[in-house]
Structure formats: C-alpha cells, structure tokens
C-alpha cells in the first residue's frame, strides 16, 4: 500500500469553488477505493458485453424499484418528509464544525474516544493501531461504506489482521475476491447459483450438496459467521447517523449480523464520514422514515442499533469513534456540489438509473457507483481524478425524483462537467469546437451559413434519406448503431423568412 | 394570439418539417405565427457539456431574438426546460444580471407545444386526423423537468383515426442525453436497444414524442433495424388533417434506400 498522507494544496484535481481556489485537500491517491483504473466508457464497454450481469442487474433493480414505489406511495406526506430531510441536512452542513465538536464532547463524556482522521491513510493508521493495541489479529465488520472507501480491509491485512465481513452480501463479495457493485446490495451482480459456487469453493467444511435455495445459502453463511461472532474481541462498524446532542451512534440493517458485531466484542471501532452527524435526537425521526422505504422498500428496517459511549457490564467496554474527512470539507466548500454530502446512502438513485442498470456498479470505479457516485466520487478525489464520471449520465432526472433528501443530482453533474472543462490547462479539441459553435450560434448571419453547410451533407448522402455510416469521429460514435437523417437543403427559419419577406 | 415560434437549432437544421407542422397547427387554430429570423439555439448543449461560459452569448442571442414576443412556443420539452432552468442561471453566474433578468422574464412566457395548447389555448381536440397505430414516449425533460404530465396523451386521444397504444417502460430514458449519446455511445446504445424492444412490442406504426432529439436517436436505431416502425414528432401528428395527412413525414426514414 502506498500512501500520500498529506496532499499539498497544489495537488492536481484540487477542488475549486467557483473560481476561488480554497486549497482544501481531496482524498489522497494510492489508498482506498474512490478511483477506477479505466474511464467510465471503457469500463462500461466491458460490462455491457456481460449478458448475465445485465440480466441480474435488470431483474434486481426492477424488483426493488417496484417495492420502493409501493411503500413510498403509502405515505401521504412523503414530499413534505423529503423536504424536511433536505432542510435538516442543509442546516446541519451550515454548522457542521459545531455539531461535530458537540458530538465529540458527548461521546467523550459517555466514555468513548474520538479520533479525527484527515484522510483515508490517517483513518487506516488509527484503526490499525487501535486493533493492534487489543492484541487481536482478527476483526468482525459491520457493512460500512466509509471503511470500503478508505480500503480498511486491505490496510488491516497488510498489518496482519484479518477483517471478516458479516453482512451476507458483503461476505459473498469478500469470499469471491470481488468488489461491491452496489451501495446496499453489494453482490447485486451475482445470482444464486454463482453465490452457491463461491460458498462451495471458499467456506471450510461447507456441505458439498449445498443447493442454490436461498434458505440453504443463508444457513451456510450463518454457520460460518456464528463461530466468528462468538470468538471476536474487536468489531469495526460504520454509522448511518450520529446524534450530536446525545453522542448516540446509529446503525440500521436487515440481518441482525450487525447487532452481533455491535454488542458481542470487547472493543468497538466506528469509522464515520463527518457528514453523517445530525444535531438532535428527534432528527432521527425524519431519516428513519425516509431511509428504509427508499432503500430496501420496507416500512421499517428490521434492526436499528443505537449506542452511546460504553455501559459497564453491557456491550463493548472500549468504544472509539473515527471521524473521517477524506475530501469531505473540500466538497463542502463547493456551493453547488456540497448537496452531495446530504446523501444517506439509501441507493434509490442507483436502482432507478438507466445507466447504472446497463453498465453496472464496477464501471464507476469507485465504492460509490450510480448517480450519487458520479457526483460524490469526483468531488472527493478532485474532478480530474474521476473526470469521466460526471458525463456518465443522460441527465434523465430519475435520480432526483427518488432521492429521499431531494439532492439535485442532474444539476450537480452539469456543474461538475463545467468544473472539469474550466480546469483544463490547455484548450482541448472539444473546447475549440464548442467555442467556435458558440460564436456561430450567437451570430445569426454565421448561423445561417453554418446551416447551409450542414445541408451539404446531402452530397455525402447522394440522394439517400440517411447519411453514410462510415463518418469520421465523433460522428462515427453515433452512426455505429444509429442512422443519421440527411439534412435538408434549407432550414425552416430560412424558408419561412423567404416566404414572408415584406 | 400572436405566437413566436422557436424552431430550436436541431429541428430547424435537421427536421424543418416539425417546425412547419407546429406553425401550420397554430395557424389552423386561428393564431398568428411569427418566426424571429435571428433565432439560433437555446444553449442547452453547451451548458450540459460543461461550456457554461460559452453558452452565455448563445443565451443573449436567444433573448434578443424573442424579446418582443408576447408568447413563445417550441416543439421541444428539452429546449424549453433549458430556457426555464438554465438560461438565467448561466447568465447570472457569468455576472450578466441584466441578461439573467431578461431570460427569466422570457422563460415565463415560453411554452412547450403540449403545455401551450392545453394550458394557454385551452384546447385538447385540435381537429387532427391521423389513421395510424401510435405509441407515445414521454421524453425525460418533458416528463421530469417540465412536468407536462398527460397533456400529450390527452391531445393524442382526441385525434380522429388514431389508435393509441401504451408503451411499456415508457418513463425509462431512451439513451439520447445530448453529448451522452456520443461520449458514452455503448451505454447509450444499450439503453436504446431496450427502448426499441418496448416500442416494437406495441406493434405501433409510429412512435411519437415531444422532442426531435430523442426521436432522432430512437428513429435512427429503428431505421438501422429496418423495423418499419417510424418516429414522428407530436406536432406532425397534431398538424395532420383529412385533407393533409402526413404519414410519411418522419424524423428518420423507415428503410434506408
């Protein structure tokens, strides 16, 4: 693992706020999982060829879309609830520093220890040292996006500590030596028979006659995990929320495996992005209504675990909270993009996104795929490190409609495209073309000349209703799969103006 | 009513018959149509591709061209959405506050065709005749940014001779998305493939919509399949009458010669 713990303010891809460079550090390179090795179009080209993947994704997202729509429709005041969630998030972000300091005071007062981590490398170092101090070489983990983001499992492994994922889907991905492709359903890209193969290959002592019946698969995982829970002395979790005024942490889940981790071990380390804080206990009332309906399509999630500090004789006796920045303050500095920090990781936007449904989560190259990932990842890393992601959307707007905290994802995508364009040190061929087109489209005389030139495409068509498919790039990207109509000789406005002269 | 027609850059240049149909329809309904000759583009393509500074002079040209108009109509949900949601914002960001104010005022009197017919003129039956089996694709910007709702469907249901069939998965994006169709051509094509399968499952002769851009994409794909199903803009259907049926006017031809 390479680390660059202290990116300088001049690091490429450092975020801008409008035209003011604020110099806030983005997530460092070489650690964590926010950057892919390929651009989105290249990675998508590979996954689009995988028919099984597309079938699995199409089936899963269609099912969960239907469930979400049904339970959301049951709530008569859903839109007000959504606006309440948005308003609470905006108000929290406006005074994030104060809420975090309050959270630190309350956690400390209840016997917990708070650590501040500037970035992934620092967070990994803190957690590794905390685990080492316990003398344990094994931790059980509650599913957590933050620890995936920073690559904690790999950091622990490098220190000789084995991290076992206990969320069923996360376990499937870990045993398959794969990476998650969905925020909520990390193994969404795998079907039952693929999961059976992974279990048969990797779980020691598993019944070789294991079928792909869901109950059998769940029982195999349960047996495998139960032994780990009982022997674990250290657990690592994420957090869905942290209440500043009471120092309470919250994890919501479906399986109960998280609660095993949160209650059985001696030491509990929670890694949480700083944006997860909410000011007051009563704020949970809004988010615990919005989250499960948007996420799993359930009215209420099956397990909600809440804890504050330590309680002698009950639960972990040693509690650490690691507050992670890793580029979040840089996101906060962008007046348009900061709304991405409101995300409560429900994954509703992934499930409705037509691009995600076809290309799959791995094409985004980050632990945050789909529409929210396309705005969050480039902001956390600096837009140059994920420059293709803001363009990985047709701007259809379905994500905005389903977002439980009304994040205007399409507008942020467009904003980040502009940030990328404006950060180019030299004009690209595309920029030259768009600048030329701008001059033409703002000058009626030039525009009419250009339209006449477009009419010259009739020569290429040689009387055919469509242009030839063999056009040079970038037109070839269109004509590879779609015909282009032959442009008419004269535009409508020109014809009309001639007809109505005088 | 005196109505200024914004043809939009794509319709004006590639499918002028859609603008012609819009003008014919409005005239038939008893309104005076003017076509400001200095119009060009709304600036959406520039804004959505990241060239918001370069979009400002385009917005300025658009506002200049239509400043005298009492009402503006365009046969495109997407361009009208850009006029409503983007023009003033990019002008304001560039420090052009006077232009931003003018753009805002112009947006308030700019309408997408189905909105103008139903909300402003109060007509649903425009006296059209179109004896074909038709399915309607609600384009994303009409559906989600402009919230045109069922207005186009109400207009189509009132067309004599027209057999309207529901499109499965209607609200899914067709995969056009402006420069997305080129920058992410493979994903765009995968989305198009599913949309075409849904269109073909209806056995409609014609797929219609309120946006020529989406229709150029869907029609371009159907043409490559030699499917026989054509794409026709909503304005062309509404402009058709018994005296002047225009079944062959398409945004992309059915069978390449």
Automatic annotation (TrEMBL), chain A:
<dbReference type="InterPro" id="IPR017900">
    <property type="entry name" value="4Fe4S_Fe_S_CS"/>
</dbReference>
<keyword id="KW-0249">Electron transport</keyword>
<keyword id="KW-0479">Metal-binding</keyword>
<keyword id="KW-0677">Repeat</keyword>
<keyword id="KW-0411">Iron-sulfur</keyword>
<dbReference type="GO" id="GO:0006089">
    <property type="term" value="P:lactate metabolic process"/>
</dbReference>
<dbReference type="GO" id="GO:0046872">
    <property type="term" value="F:metal ion binding"/>
</dbReference>
<dbReference type="GO" id="GO:0051539">
    <property type="term" value="F:4 iron, 4 sulfur cluster binding"/>
</dbReference>
<dbReference type="Pfam" id="PF13183">
    <property type="entry name" value="Fer4_8"/>
</dbReference>
<feature type="domain" description="LUD">
    <location>
        <begin position="100"/>
        <end position="310"/>
    </location>
</feature>
<dbReference type="InterPro" id="IPR037171">
    <property type="entry name" value="NagB/RpiA_transferase-like"/>
</dbReference>
<dbReference type="InterPro" id="IPR003741">
    <property type="entry name" value="LUD_dom"/>
</dbReference>
<protein>
    <submittedName>
        <fullName>L-lactate dehydrogenase complex protein LldF</fullName>
    </submittedName>
</protein>
<dbReference type="InterPro" id="IPR009051">
    <property type="entry name" value="Helical_ferredxn"/>
</dbReference>
<dbReference type="InterPro" id="IPR024569">
    <property type="entry name" value="LutB_C"/>
</dbReference>
<keyword id="KW-0813">Transport</keyword>
<dbReference type="Pfam" id="PF02589">
    <property type="entry name" value="LUD_dom"/>
</dbReference>
<feature type="domain" description="Lactate utilization protein B C-terminal">
    <location>
        <begin position="425"/>
        <end position="499"/>
    </location>
</feature>
<dbReference type="InterPro" id="IPR024185">
    <property type="entry name" value="FTHF_cligase-like_sf"/>
</dbReference>
<dbReference type="Pfam" id="PF11870">
    <property type="entry name" value="LutB_C"/>
</dbReference>
<dbReference type="InterPro" id="IPR017896">
    <property type="entry name" value="4Fe4S_Fe-S-bd"/>
</dbReference>
<keyword id="KW-0004">4Fe-4S</keyword>
TrEMBL record, chain B:
<dbReference type="InterPro" id="IPR004017">
    <property type="entry name" value="Cys_rich_dom"/>
</dbReference>
<dbReference type="Pfam" id="PF02754">
    <property type="entry name" value="CCG"/>
</dbReference>
<protein>
    <submittedName>
        <fullName>L-lactate dehydrogenase complex protein LldE</fullName>
    </submittedName>
</protein>
<feature type="domain" description="Cysteine-rich">
    <location>
        <begin position="3"/>
        <end position="83"/>
    </location>
</feature>
<dbReference type="GO" id="GO:0016491">
    <property type="term" value="F:oxidoreductase activity"/>
</dbReference>
<feature type="domain" description="Cysteine-rich">
    <location>
        <begin position="134"/>
        <end position="218"/>
    </location>
</feature>
<dbReference type="GO" id="GO:0005829">
    <property type="term" value="C:cytosol"/>
</dbReference>
């Amino acid at each position: 693992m390479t680390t660059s713990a202290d990116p300088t303010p001049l690091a490429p891809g450092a975020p801008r706020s409008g035209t003011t460079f604020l110099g806030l550090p983005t997530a460092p390179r070489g650690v964590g999982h926010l950057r892919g090795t390929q651009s989105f179009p290249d990675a998508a080209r590979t996954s689009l060829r995988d028919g099984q993947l597309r079938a699995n994704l199409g089936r899963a997202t269609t099912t969960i879309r239907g469930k979400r729509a049904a339970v959301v429709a049951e709530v008569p005041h859903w839109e007000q609830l959504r606006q309440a969630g948005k308003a609470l998030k905006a108000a929290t972000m406006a005074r994030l520093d104060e809420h975090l300091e309050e959270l630190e005071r309350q956690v400390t007062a209840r016997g917990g220890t708070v650590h501040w981590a500037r970035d992934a490398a620092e967070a990994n170092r803190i957690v590794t040292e905390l685990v080492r101090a316990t003398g344990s070489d094994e931790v059980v983990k509650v599913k957590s996006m933050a620890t995936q983001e920073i690559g904690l499992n790999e950091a622990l492994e490098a220190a000789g500590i084995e991290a076992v994922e206990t969320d069923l889907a996360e376990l499937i991905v870990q045993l398959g030596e794969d990476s998650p492709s969905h925020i909520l359903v990390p193994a969404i890209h795998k079907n039952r028979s693929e999961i059976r193969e992974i279990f048969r290959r990797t779980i020691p002592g598993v019944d070789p006659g294991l079928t792909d019946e869901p109950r059998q698969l769940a029982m195999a995982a349960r047996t495998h995990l139960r032994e780990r829970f009982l022997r674990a002395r250290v657990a690592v979790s994420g957090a869905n929320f942290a209440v500043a005024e009471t120092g309470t942490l919250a994890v919501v889940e479906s399986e109960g495996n998280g609660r095993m981790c949160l209650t059985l071990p001696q030491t509990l380390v929670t890694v949480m992005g700083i944006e997860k804080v909410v000011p007051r206990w009563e704020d949970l009332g809004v988010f615990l209504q919005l989250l499960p309906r948007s996420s799993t399509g359930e009215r209420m999630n099956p397990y909600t675990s809440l804890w504050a500090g330590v309680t002698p004789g009950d639960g972990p006796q040693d509690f650490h909270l690691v507050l992670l920045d890793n580029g979040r303050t840089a996101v906060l500095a962008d007046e348009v993009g900061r709304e991405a920090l409101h995300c409560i990781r429900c994954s509703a936007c992934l499930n409705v996104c037509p691009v995600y449904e076809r290309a799959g989560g791995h094409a985004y190259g980050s632990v945050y795929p789909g529409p929210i990932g396309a705005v969050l990842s480039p902001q956390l890393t600096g837009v140059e490190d994920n420059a293709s992601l803001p363009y990985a959307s047709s701007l259809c707007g379905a994500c905005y409609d389903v977002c439980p905290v009304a994040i205007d994802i399409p507008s942020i995508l467009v904003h980040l495209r502009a940030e990328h364009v404006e950060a180019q040190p030299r004009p690209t061929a595309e920029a030259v073309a768009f600048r030329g087109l701008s001059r033409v489209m703002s000058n009626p005389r030039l525009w009419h000349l250009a339209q006449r030139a477009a009419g010259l495409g009739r020569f290429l068509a040689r009387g055919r209703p469509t242009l030839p498919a063999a056009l040079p790039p970038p037109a070839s990207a269109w004509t590879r799969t779609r015909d282009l109509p032959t442009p008419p000789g004269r535009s409508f406005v020109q014809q009309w103006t001639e007809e109505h002269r005088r | 009513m005196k109505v200024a027609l914004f043809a939009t850059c794509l319709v004006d240049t590639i499918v002028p018959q859609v603008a012609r149909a819009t003008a014919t329809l409005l005239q038939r309904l008893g309104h005076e149509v003017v076509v400001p000759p200095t119009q060009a583009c709304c600036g959406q393509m520039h804004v959505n591709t990241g060239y918001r500074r370069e979009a400002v002079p385009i917005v300025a040209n658009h506002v200049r061209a239509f400043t005298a108009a009492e009402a503006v109509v365009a046969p495109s949900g997407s361009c009208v959405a850009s006029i409503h949601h983007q023009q003033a914002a990019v002008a304001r960001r560039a420090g052009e506050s006077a232009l931003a104010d003018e753009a805002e005022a112009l947006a308030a009197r700019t309408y997408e065709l189905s909105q103008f017919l139903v909300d402003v003129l109060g007509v649903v039956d425009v006296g059209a005749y179109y004896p074909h089996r038709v399915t309607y694709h609600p384009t994303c910007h009409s559906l989600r940014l402009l919230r045109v709702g069922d207005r186009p469907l109400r207009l189509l249901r009132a067309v004599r001779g027209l057999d309207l069939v529901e499109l499965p998965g209607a609200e899914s994006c067709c995969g056009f998305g402006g420069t997305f169709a080129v920058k992410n051509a493979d994903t765009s094509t995968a989305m198009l493939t599913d949309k075409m399968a849904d269109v073909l499952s209806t056995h409609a002769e014609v797929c219609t919509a309120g946006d020529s851009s989406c229709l150029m994409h869907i029609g371009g794909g159907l043409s490559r399949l030699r499917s026989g199903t054509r794409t026709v803009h909503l304005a062309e259907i509404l402009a058709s009458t018994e005296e002047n049926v225009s079944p062959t006017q398409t945004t992309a031809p059915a069978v390449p010669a």
